[in-house]
Amino acid sequence: MIFLAPAVLLGLLALPALYFLLRLTPPPPRKIAFPPLALLHGLQQEERTPRNMPLWLLLLRLLASGLVIIGLAGPSLHPAPKLPGGGPVLLVIDNGFAAAADWPARRAAAESILAAASQSGSGVAILATARDPANQAPRIQGVFTAVQALQRLTALQPEPWPVDRAAAASTLAGAPGFAARIYLADGITDGPDFLAFLKTLRPTRIYSSGVTAALLDDETLAPNGDLQVRLAAGPATANILAETETGDVLASAAVGAGRIAKFHLPLPLAARVEKLVLAGPPQAGGVLLLDGAARAALVGLAAGAQNAESPYLGPLFFARLALPPGSQPLDGTLASLIAAKAGIIILADVPLSAADRQAAQTYVQNGGEIIRFAGPLTAENPDSFNPDPLLQGDRRLGGALTWTAPESLAAFPAESPFAGLAMDESARISRQMLADPTRLDPATIWATLLDGTPVVIGKPIGAGFLVTVLTTANADWSSLALSGLFPPLLARLIALAHGAPPKPGAALPLTAALDAFGTLDPPGVPENVTPAALPGLMVSPLTPPGIYGASGAQGGSRIALNLGQHVPPVIPASLPGALPLSGQIPPQNFGPKLLAVALLLLALDLLISLRLRGLIRVAALLLLVTLAPSAQAQNAVQVQIPPEPPPPPAAQNPALATTLAYILTGDPATDQISADGLSYLSALVTTHSSARLQNPEAVTPGIDDLALYPLIYWPVLPATPAPSPAACAALSGYMQHGGLLVIDTPGGDAAAPGSGAGFLPGAAAAVARDTACLGLPPLEPLTQANVLAHCFYIVPDFPGRFTGAPVLIAPPAARDADGVTPIIIAQNDFAAAWARDAGGEPEQTPIPGGEDQRIIAERFGTNLVIYALTGSYKADQANLPALLDRLGP
C-alpha cells in the first residue's frame, strides 16, 4: 500500500493533543425536583469541570480523527508501476474489433498507467488506432492531465472494424517527443503496416492479452439445409449458440478453431434463428448475422398431371432436382401446402378453381411466393391468377406444320431477377403460352425469347410474389428443364421468398448496425451499400457491419454484412517482451472509504452526545418534522397495477348462470387441461366483457343435459373409446338446437378432414371414428372473412398450443338460420394454450410462437365464447344500414 499524499500523515502527531482536548467535555445537566427551595440544596460553590470521560467514547473520537487523517493521505492498493522518463506519456490503444473481447482488461491497464502518470505529475496523450465513426483518421489527443485523460479514456470504446495502423503511423511521424510511449496491442498483425507502425512508434512498453481475436466465417448453409459456421480464428475449442432476435438460445454446437459447427434444426425453429454467436466475451467477430441467403426454404410442389414424379417425364421431376441446396420439398395440393406454411409453392400445369385463386391470392399477399409453370391443362383453361392476362391455347415453334424453329432465350433485362445469369444455348423453347399483348405490363417481363416474346412474367403482390413461366417444367414444351440454366434460374426465383433482389446499382441503406460487442443498434447515420460491391467489401466506418436493406422501395431485401471474409485475416502478432494485460490491476484508493467510515463514527458520536445531554428526544422530534413533508410527497405517488383477471364465481346451477362445458375423455391429464383452460377462458371473458361466466363443468354426452351449455369443448384422443349411440344422439341434438361443439385434437401441422389433407397419424382415425355417427357435412377452413375472426378481437389466425393447421367450420348451407356454425374442428390444442395453474402461471408452452402465440390463442378463445353467446349479432352489425332500409321509415 502507498499513500498519494503522505505529508498528511503528520496530522497523526496531533492525536495526543486531541486526547486532552476531547476530555474537556461539559458535564451533563442535573435534574432537580420542584419546589424551588430544593434548587439550593446540595449546590457546590466552586466550579467543577470533569477531567475524565468514558474510555470507549474517547477511543471512538480518536479513531474517527485518525481515519480522517489517514483518508486524506490517500491510501492506495496495487500501486501503478513507475513510468520511464520524467516527461509526458503517449498512450497508444488498439480499439478495433479485435480489442472488444479483452476490453475490460485493456481499460484496467490504461487506468493503471494513468494512475502512475498522476503520481509522477506527467501529462498524458492518447492515440486510438481505429478510425472513428465519422471516418476521421487516428490522431493524438492531448497532452492532458491524468484526470482529464481518464475522462477521455472512459468515453473511448472499441469500434467494429479493423484498426488503421498506416494512418496511425503517419500521425506518429510528426508527433513531438514523449518520455514514454506505451502500447496496448490487440495481439494481431496486418502485415507490413504493423511492422512500419511499430518502427515509427518505438514503444517503451507493450501490453497484450495474448488472446487471438475470434472470427466466424460466412459459411452458413449446408447442402442439406442445416445451418453451419466455421470458426476461422479464436480459441482452440468453443461453443457456438444459435440465437433468436430476443436472445433465446435454440441450439449450441462445440467447435474447434478452423472447423465447422453444424446445427440440425426443424425448419420452423431454423427460421427463428437470427444470428450465430460464439459463447464467451461479447465481440463483433464472434457474431454471424443471418439474412435470407442463409435460410433453408420449405418448397411446396404440386402438379396437375397424374404422372408428376415419372422420371424424365413428370412435370415435377426436373423441378425437384433443380431446387437449390438447403431447400426442403413438400408434396401436396395447393390447399395443403398453404396450410403447411410453405414459403414457396411451385405449381406445374395446375388449373385453379375460383376458391383456389382466392386462397392463393391471400397466400401471396401475406408474403408467400407462387411459381406457376404452363402446360396443356392450363393452356386449355387459362385463369386470371397470373401476373398478366394470358391468351387461350399455346404457340408452337418448330415442327412439320410450322415455318418457325425453336427459339433461344434472350439476354435477361437489367431489372430482371435473373440479371447476370450466364445464358445456356441448349435452352430452347418449342411451345409456350402467350401473354395478352394488349394488356401486358412491360415491368412484369423477366425473361423473353430472342423474338421478344415473354417467357417468364412476374410481379410482387402485397408482401409476396407471383411468377408464371410460360412453358412446362419438363421437356414436353422446351429443353429449358434439361439445360444448365434451369437450376440457377429456379434458385433466383426461390430467393425471392426472402425479399426482392435490389436493382443493379441500387444502394441498400443500413438499417441495423453491429457494434464492437456484437449488439445490433439503430445506425447513427444510415450508410448505403450496393449489393454488387458486397463480396469484396471490407468493413469500415463508411460500411460498418450490420443489416442492409429496406422493406419499402427495395421490396424487402435484407443482406447481412458480417466481419467474416470482410476483414483482413486474423494472424497473431509477434510481440516479444509484451506484458500481460490481465496482470495490470488499476490502483484502488481507500481514502474515500475511510472518510466515509469516519463520518459514520462522528455521526454516532453526535447521537451519543445528544443522549448524554438528554436532547435525543428533541432531535428525534426535529427529524420527524423534517421528514414529514417528503413522506407525504412519497405517499402521494401511487402506482396503479392492473388487476389480474378475477376467478370465476363459485360453482352453481348451470341453468341459472352461463357455463361452459368440456367432455370427459377418461384421461386425467387431458381432462385437467380442459378444466384449467376453460376456467381461465371463463375468467378472461368475465373480465373483458359484460358476460358473467361461472366455472366450467365436465359432462358426459348421453347422461348429462347438454342444452344448458352454449359451448362444449371436446378433446379427441386416439385412445378414447367411440361415443355410444346415446352420446351421438345427444351431441347431434345439441348441435341442431343451437349449441356450439368445438372438437380439438392434440395439435400438429397437417390439415383436417375436408380440407384436402389428413390429421397427424392416429388423430385422423380418432376423429373419423368419433364423428362418424354425427352426420357432419363437408367442412371448410375458417377465414378472416368469418365473424369468428372479429366478433370481439380481430385475430390474424387461430392458434392454440400449436399452429399451422386450418380451423374447420360448417359451410353456409349447413349453418343455422342465423348463419352460425354448429361445429368447429381443429387440431391446435386450444385448451393447453389457455390453461393456467392455481398461481396464474401458464401450464404449457405454445409452439413455436411462445407468449405472442398464447395471446392470440386467448383472444380467439374469447371470440369463440362471444360467438357462442351472441350468434350472428356481430355479423348483423355490418349489414345494419341495409336492414334499416328494409324496415322502412
Describe this structure in words.
Helix 1 packs antiparallel against helix 2 and helix 5 packs parallel to helix 6. Helix 16 links the parallel strand 37 and strand 38. This protein has about 900 residues and is of the alpha/beta class. It has four domains: about 90-215 and about 570-585, 3-Layer(aba) Sandwich (Rossmann fold); about 215-295 and about 510-520 and about 535-570, no CATH class; about 305-500, Class I glutamine amidotransferase (GATase) domain (Rossmann fold, 3-Layer(aba) Sandwich), CATH 3.40.50; about 660-875, Rossmann fold. The chain is about 25% helix and about 20% strand. Mean pLDDT is about 80; it is low at about 550-555, about 635-650 and about 750-760. The protein is flat. The chain has a seven-stranded mixed sheet with strand order 17-16-18-19-26-25-24. Strands 36-35-37-38-41-40-39 form a seven-stranded mixed sheet, with helices on both faces. It has a six-stranded mixed sheet with strand order 5-4-3-6-8-33.
